[in-house]
Amino acid sequence: MADRISKIISAHGLASRREAERMISRGDVTVNGEVAILGQSADVSCDVIAVNGVELKAKDAPVYIMLNKPCGYLSTARDERGRKTILELVSDVGVRVYPVGRLDLDSEGLILLTNDGEFANNVAHPSGEKVKTYRVEVVGDISEAYKQLGAPIEIDGYTVSAVNVKILSHKGDRGVLSISIAEGRNRQIRKMCSVCRLKVFSLRRVSIGELELGALESGKWRYLTDSEVASLGG
Question: Are 100 and 113 contacting, i.e. CB atoms less than 8 angstroms apart?
Fold first, then answer.
């Protein structure tokens, strides 16, 4: 089926739609040996589309899954040090998929994987950033930290703000918090808690936008429904 070349390039995970259009404008893309033009459509199943001389191949059908990542797994496609990655947990999907965003090695919970580059770009792009909610077990002055977490906090030279903070349970200096954020800075929740003098014992992402982890067991995955994909911008 014919589609816009910029969309095809984005769907292959080579670039965002906008960057793909820049590549076309620069003359980096050809269709059947001819330089492509903006707005041109093609069919990857019968047309030869090449980016910088490298031909794009027909893609597998798009796959969208959610995984309940356990602690101890990297949320990357590969690791030079040979550590475990989440791709080991989804090896039975049947096609090659890649993580959308990341969770720290010591964090767990909801993470998305797909072979649809455009979907991944849409979900990860700052303009479409979804609110992510985390269940965080902490030790410290919960009451004081709760007030601080509800206000802007500076980490790594940036000012960040929680969308919502709730105390789910609290006994003495131990508690469980629900923290929702719209940004996605490196180890943001842990750094926010550190600024508020809270020690994090466990951190689990429980939702992305309207998508919830639910009762999915640790280390298990499932396909997203069509409505779930649509809610995430797919």
Answer: yes
Exactly one of 104, 116, 141, 226 is catalytic; name it: 104
Confidence (pTM): 0.77
Closest CA to 12 of 43, 56, 76: 56
Residue 192 has a CB neighbour count (10 Å cut-off) of 25
- Is 226 considered catalytic here? no
Identify whether the C-beta of residue 222 lies closer than 8 Å to the C-beta of residue 66.
yes
Q: Are strands 174-181 and 162-171 parallel, antiparallel or unpaired?
A: antiparallel
How confident is the model over 195-212, as pLDDT tens digits? 999 999 999 999 999 999
Interatomic CA distance for residues 18 and 147, integer angstroms: 41
> Which residues, including other chains, have CB under 8 Å from residue 188's CB and lie 6 or more apart?
155, 160, 181
Under 8 Å CB-to-CB from 172, ≥6 apart: which residues?
none
Distance CA 110, CA 103 (A): 9
Number of CB atoms found within 10 A of residue 60's CB: 12
